[in-house]
Design brief:
By secondary structure, the protein is an alpha/beta fold. The chain folds into five domains: 102 residues, Alpha-Beta Plaits (2-Layer Sandwich), CATH 3.30.70.100; 84 residues, DHBP synthase; 171 residues, DHBP synthase; 136 residues, 2-Layer Sandwich (Nucleotidyltransferase, domain 5), CATH 3.30.420.360; 198 residues, 2-Layer Sandwich (Nucleotidyltransferase, domain 5). Helix content is 32%, strand content 21%. It is built from 22 helices and 28 strands. The strands form five sheets. A ten-stranded mixed beta sheet has the order 6-13-7-8-12-9-11-10-14-15, with helices on both faces. Strands 26-23-22-21-27-28 form a six-stranded mixed beta sheet, with helices on both faces. Strands 4-1-3-2-5 form a five-stranded mixed beta sheet. Helix 13 packs across helix 22 and helix 20 crosses helix 21. It is globular, with a radius of gyration of 28 Å. The structure holds zinc ion (2 copies) and fe (iii) ion.
């Protein structure tokens, strides 16, 4: 190199270790004719570049554009350095540091390079189900501790053969420092066994498993983050058998399609769906069913969507390649328990469900369920954020103290913060049984260890009976901060958008504990990270039977009808009446009047349930949200005018839901088709909440509206409010990085607790 020679030192923060970043920098520097070196540090990588100034600029411009698929750059810092006179570019040993904090990559789908090797009959990894490289494969689920090195992963039981070792040591190889690197000679293997764990001898266990699936058997299949239960998705009888054995009556099953073109045979796949399906995270994507599809009707009964994913492990590819349109791939668990990850545990807990087990001997240290996403209003929305995304942090506006937030009760996740990072855990589940509680505890311990976070404070939900709350209260080594449920929802959305200051928060939800000991869930808050006031809420009504009223929406219908028109409703020709007995009406109204086991709720979720039940859609449900989903489905895209949406005066406005119920009933009596009524109901909420926000803007000057809470899983309501509020001149924020349901709650708890302590 002649002429002027410059030198820079570049520090890069983010997910840059164990993802092929140093070999990438090595190649990039050489492409630009630069000398210098690259090394891992405790916080990321540091690069020394020397050469022509314009070549250095070009190299640094290329860097973020060409980064390896698993790398996630948070920050690039560049500073001038002195010229050392390097004569080439080198990868040098790690620069030691006191901090052992590095960001860990999530588990991602097998890459195309590996797939073509796997399909090549001349390759030494032909049909090898554990093929991977620096750009693909397991990470988060196989790590026990940091730094991320093979002895700290599930691969410690397998020592590299000579051929694999050469790849591992060669900076120019695709498998340089790929910790899970393996081959048929030295790596993990698969086998097939029966429910007693007896190995079934088969020349090709994968082909044998596929054959069993074709005959309608239920296969337990060990994946990346846990076991799946699989059946042939076109086999009606097999699907029924799986439902019966799994004790899962109506909840939709997820599907794994063999490839994109096959997926397109049973769901509508547009460009956005295609990029989600093919992304390295490989989530389950909710997509509209196609007319005349060939999938068994029992897969997603009464649902307009299928949850579809594409194969993400080499093993999936090998099984699906045996000529399936799609497989049902549902979590390997019993009803609401956590998904199985260990072989022995799977045999014990899934022994009554699966006929056969396709096992392997690469351990899963931390379970991680499939993530579930859908596209609404041009953005990806998470219903569950887990495998493929965790543990990528949410990047915060500013540094935070170290907080552990323990989440809610249902769809639990936990969150740990340090510096500008908030680490939301994978889906833990509904905290209603011992196994889930154990998994919750394990996740907290595991994440604290691998992220090297010792929390200074614990944030929890105010509900005194949540298991997560009880856990927080046992942490008497640390200060604890209770965060109101809907405040946490709004702050969760504030945090992911890096917003500061006060906003109008619409927390539309199913259930959350209010400080007045009633059940909140239709809340309009004036909120900021450190606090909130309740500006408006739905009129509280009784939930006769308490939790039973969630499982039996007819109870909420009776309650709303009683509040709205006394006994008058009993003479009306409501579809609800066809499914109700006189004693049911008697007992529930008595409970309401006497206040027996009938807590008050302002939940919008319960109002949805009531309207769905009045229209006769679901008098009882198999899972929370089922009735509301049916109402949304019924409304489809029907255009219809809103009902009146009124609220009272005062500091805390009470929204008059009784008027909405009366309007619904009057439409029913007038013989209005129910899709129109369902559409009018949705439209009422969209227009009414927009009007309310306008009044609050006049009063407070606030023009930012934040949407959060489980009810915003309703596509029409979310898209409608985003559009309508936008037209009214508001800046509107909804979730894009974490779920709007309780799966995103812990993020808000953590950020709110930090603000309240400050
Ligand atoms: Zn690969
Ligand atoms: Zn090997
Ligand atoms: Fe909630």
């Amino acid at each position: 190199m002649s002429g002027s020679k410059a030198a820079v030192r570049v520090s890069i923060n983010g997910i840059v270790q164990g993802v092929g970043f140093r070999p990438f920098v090595y190649q990039l520097a050489r492409d630009h004719g630069l000398a210098g070196q690259v090394a891992n540090t405790a916080m990321g990588v540091v690069i020394q570049l020397e050469g022509a100034p314009e070549a250095i600029d070009a190299c640094l411009q290329d860097l973020p554009r060409r980064k390896p698929p698993l790398a996630h750059i948070v920050e690039i810092q560049r500073e001038p350095a002195t010229v050392h006179g390097f004569d080439d570019f080198r990868i040098v040993p790690s620069v030691g540091g006191q901090e052992r904090f590095t960001l860990i990559s999530p588990d991602v789908a097998v890459c195309d390079d590996c797939l073509s090797e796997m399909r090549d009959s001349n390759d030494r990894r032909h049909r090898y189900p554990f093929i991977n490289c620096t750009n693909c494969g397991p990470r988060y689920t196989i790590i026990t501790d940091v730094p991320y090195d093979r002895p700290k992963t599930a691969m410690r039981h397998f020592s590299l053969c000579e051929a694999c070792r050469r790849e591992y040591d060669d900076p120019s190889d695709r498998r340089f420092h790929a910790q899970p690197n393996a081959c048929p000679v030295c790596g993990p293997s698969v086998w097939l066994c029966d429910r007693d764990g007896q190995e079934i001898s088969a020349e090709d266990p994968i082909a044998a498993a596929a054959e069993a699936l074709k005959q309608g058997q239920v296969l337990a299949l060990k994946g990346l983050g846990g076991f799946h239960l699989a059946v042939d998705a076109q086999n009606e009888e097999a699907v029924r058998r799986l439902r019966r054995r799994k004790r899962r009556e109506e909840k939709p099953f997820a599907l794994m399609a063999a490839d994109l073109s096959r997926a397109g045979q049973f769901v509508e796949v547009d460009a956005a769906a295609q990029s989600l399906l093919e992304s390295i995270q490989r989530p389950i994507v909710l997509l509209p069913k196609r007319e005349g599809h060939a999938i068994a009707s029992g897969v997603a009964p009464g649902n307009a969507y299928f949850g579809v994913m594409l194969p993400y492990t080499p093993l999936h590819h090998l099984v699906l390649a045996e000529d399936f349109l799609a497989l049902v791939m549902t979590s390997g668990n019993l009803s609401e328990e956590p998904i199985c990850i260990a072989n022995a545990d799977a045999l014990e807990r899934l022994g009554q469900i699966a006929d056969l087990f396709l096992m392997h001997n690469r351990d899963i240290y931390l379970r991680s369920d499939d993530s579930i996403v859908r596209q609404v209003a041009g953005e990806v929305r998470f219903l569950r954020r887990s495998r493929g995304y965790v543990p990528v942090p949410v990047f915060l506006r500013s540094n935070l103290p170290r907080v552990l937030a323990v989440g809610g009760e249902l769809k639990n996740t936990i969150c740990l913060t340090r510096e500008r990072f908030a680490f939301l855990s994978q889906h833990i589940g509904d905290m209603e049984n011992r196994q889930t509680e154990d998994f919750f505890q394990l996740t907290i311990d595991h994440l604290q260890r691998i992220l090297d976070i010792r929390p200074e404070v614990v944030a929890y939900d105010l509900h005194p009976d949540y298991l997560s709350t009880r856990y927080a209260q046992t942490r008497d080594d640390l200060p604890v901060v209770g965060i109101q449920h809907h405040h946490a929802h709004i702050v969760s959305c504030l945090a992911e958008h890096q917003l500061e200051g006060r906003v109008i928060g619409l927390a539309m939800d199913g259930t959350g504990y209010g400080p007045d000991h009633t059940v909140w869930g239709g809340e309009v808050l004036i909120a900021e990270a450190g606090g909130y006031t309740r500006a408006a809420h739905l009129q509280p009504v009784a939930m006769p039977g308490s939790a039973s009223a969630i499982r039996e929406p007819w109870r909420m219908a009776v309650s709303f009808l009683e509040v709205s028109m006394g006994e008058g409703w009993r003479e009306m020709p409501l579809p609800l009446m066809k499914g109700l007995s006189e004693p049911q009406i008697q007992i529930s109204t008595q409970m309401i009047r006497q206040g027996l086991n009938s807590p008050l709720t302002s939940s919008l979720g319960r109002l949805f349930d009531a309207v769905a039940a009045i229209l006769g859609l679901h008098l009882t449900v198999a899972f929370e949200g089922q009735a509301a989903m049916a109402l949304e489905h019924l409304a489809a895209d029907v255009d219809a005018p809103p009902y009146a949406f009124r609220w009272g005066a005062g500091d805390t406005r009470i929204i008059d839901t009784a008027a909405i119920i009366r309007a619904v009933c009057s439409d029913v009596s007038a013989g209005m088709p129910s899709p129109i009524i369902a559409a009018r109901f949705h439209e009422t909420l969209v227009q009414g909440l927009t009007d309310l926000c306008e009044e609050l803007r006049r009063e407070t000057g606030l023009d930012r509206v934040v949407l959060s809470g489980g009810v915003f899983q309703n596509r029409r309501l979310l898209a409608g409010l985003l559009a309508r509020l936008g037209l009214a001149g508001f800046s509107v924020f909804a979730h894009r990085q974490v779920p709007t349901n309780d799966g995103g709650l812990a993020l808000g708890q953590a950020v709110a607790a930090a603000a309240m302590m400050a």
